[in-house]
Predict the 3D structure of the following.
Amino acid sequence: MPILSLKHISKRYGAIQALSGVSFEVPKGAVFGILGPNGSGKTTLLGIVTDVLKADEGSYSLFDAPPAASLRRQIGTLLETPNFYHYLSAYQNLQIAASIKQRPETDISRVLGIAGLANRQHSRFKTYSLGMKQRLAIASALLGDPEVLILDEPTNGLDPAGIAEVRELILQLAQSGKTIILASHLLDEVEKVCSHVAILQQGKLLLSGPVNEVLAREDFVELSAADNRALETVLSRHPAFGHILGRSTHLQVVFKQPVDPAALNAWCVEQGIWLNHINTRKQSLEKAFLQITNN
Amino acid sequence: MLQIIRTEWLKVRSYRAFWVMVLLAVAIVPGGNYIAAEITSQIQQKTKELIAIAPYDFPLIWQSMANVNSYMTALFAIPMLILVTNEFTYRTHRQNIIDGWERRQFVYAKLFWWLALGLLAFITSVVFAVILGLAYGDHGFSFEGFRYMWYYFLQVQVSLAIALLIAVLVRRAGLAIVLYLAYTMMVEQVLVLLIKRKIGEVGGLLPLQSGDELLPFPVIGKLIGTGDRFDDSVYLLMLFVYIALFIFLVFRRMLKTDY
C-alpha cells in the first residue's frame, strides 16, 4: 500500500508554473527524499498534500484513500517554517497541536525531550532562536508518534551538531519502520538518509525511484603521465575504456567495467606510458545531480 | 465542536492582550450607560411634565441600553479581528490544517468567537440594564420592550460578521482594524445618508443601519424619526440576510483559497 500517491498534480501561481503533472508514489516504510533546487516546487507539492494549497489539476491519495483531515492527523508534518503562537510557550503550543491531532498531552514531554527543549519548554515561542523554533516544529511533528512524517527542510536553521542530531533521529525513525517524506535541497542530506528519491526541477518531476538508481554515480580513474595527450590516445585503446570525464592536471577516465589500478598501470607500461599518478574516485554527488538536472 | 472550542480556549487562555480587550469591551457597557443614565435622569427631572418615564427606567431601559450600546459594538469586534488576523500573521491557520483540522473546522473555530463575543455583549447589556434600571428607575422590573435587546444582539452579530469577513480577506491586523473602523464609523453612515437623499429609504437597509433603524433612542428617536420607513420586520429580515451572506463569504474564502 503506498502511503502517498500523486497523480498528475499541477499548480500555477500566475505566470509561474510551480508544478506540472507530477506523479509518483511513496511506498510504506520508505525514507523518501524530494530533492530539488530552491523554487523547484517541493514545498508547493507538500502544501497540496497537506491541504494548505489547492492543486489546479490532478489528485492524490493518503494511505490509499481519498485525502481527509483524519488521515492528516496520522501524519506528523513540518512544512516550510515553524508556525506557532508567539505569545504562548513551547508547551502551550504543543497542547494546541495535541488537541487538533487528538493525541494525548502526556506525549508532549517526550517529544520536547527528543528535540532538546525540555529546559526551555515554558519559555515563550517569541524568545526562541531560529534553531530552537525549528526543533519545536520537529517536536510537534513527532507528537503522538505518527507512522508517517513529512519533513520539509528539517535541518533549516540548525547548527552542525543540530543537523547531525536530526539526521540521526530520521535514521532512527526510519529503522523503526516509519515512512518519512523528506524535502531538501541538500544533496548529501538526502543521500545519507533516504532510501528513495524524487527529483524536481522547475515544477517537473525529472526522476524518481530508489536513491542508488536515481543518483547513480560513475566511478572514474584519475590518471596522469608526462604526456597526457599520448596517455589519452593509449587509454582509448583499452578494452574497458568508456569515456573521458575531465581533462585538467589529471585525466578523469570512466571505464565500462571496474579496473584494477595495478593492472591498468602494468597495461600502460606495456603501451610505453609510465604513469606518475593513478587514483580511483567516485563522481561527486553534485556532479551527478547536475548531470540529471542539466539533461 | 467541543474539541474545537477546547483548542480555541488553549489559544487564548494565556493571551493577556486578548483578555484586556475583552475586559475593556465589557467595562465600556456600564461605563457608557452610566454617563447616559446620569444625563438623561437630569433631563428628565427638568422636563417631568413632557417625559413621563425616564429612559433608564423600566420598561424603556431595554431600548435605551440597546441604543447606546449599538454605538460601542466595535469594542467587541476588536478582539475578534485580533484573534483571526493573528492566525494569518503567525501562519497558524496553515498549521491548524496541517495538524488535522478540516478547513471548515477552522471557520467553525472562528464562528465560535463570533457567537461567543456576541453573546458576551448581549449578556453584559442585559445584566447592566437590570442593575441600572433598578438603580435609576422608579418602576418595577419588566420585560416589556426586551425585544430591543434581541435587535441589539443581532446588530452585534452583523458587526462581528463584518469584522470576521474583513479579517479573512485582509489578513493583516492593522489594516483590518482600520478598514473595519472606517466602515462602521464613517463609510456606511455616508452611504446611508447619500442613498436616503438620492434614492430613498432603501438606504436604511445597509448592514449596520438595518440594526440602527430598529434601535431608535426612546422618545427622542420617535421625535426625529421619518414617517416612510419600512416595517420593522424588513429590517429584522435584512439583519439575518447579512449574517448569512457574510458567513457564506467567509466560508467561500477559507475553503477555496491557498493558505
